[in-house]
Amino acid sequence: MSRKGIANKISKYDTDIIPRLSDIKEWIAEGDSVRDICHKLSISPDSWYRYCKDHETLSELVNMGKCLLNQDVEKSLFKLCMGYEFEELKTIVEEDRNGKKHTKLEKTKRHQPPSAQAISFFLRNRCPEEWSDKKQLVLDTAQNEQARKELFLQMLSDEQPPEIAETSEDDENLECD
């Protein structure tokens, strides 16, 4: 029974979503957006999100479809990183002396070299510690921080800056490569 004491009637989820679960999985694996799927099912995005939240079967199906899509994209990216072989088909139409046209198919094996851009993207995202463009090197000590503060305060009061504190042995051992 429903909240108002009226017997449950068949919901739109039961009539429109459940029979199309295989279609939904396929659409997600093909990369359709939520808006596209909602349009195909004739439901609102709010209903879609509510159904995903309320129905574990749909939620798992969506996650599985996204996982399949991600795997396909990862395979394609890896293929671009490594380079690959492919066959190119050319259709050649020749005309003989009598004016008759002959169609000939020509197969050519080609090689797509690795893409530097794909390799860079792959490495920056898979191993960010080693390949990130953003490197942070912090060489700061409490003594240097104190000297900067004093220099800043004196600059504000328009006085001559004091001698910057001599570096300690710890500061001398820090080197930049």
TrEMBL record:
Q: Where is the composition biased (Acidic residues)?
A: 166-177
- Taxonomic lineage: Bacteria, Bacillati, Bacillota, Clostridia, Eubacteriales
The protein's name is Transposase
Q: Which domain of life is it from?
A: Bacteria
Organism, scientific name: Caproiciproducens faecalis
Which stretches does the entry tag as region Disordered? 156-177
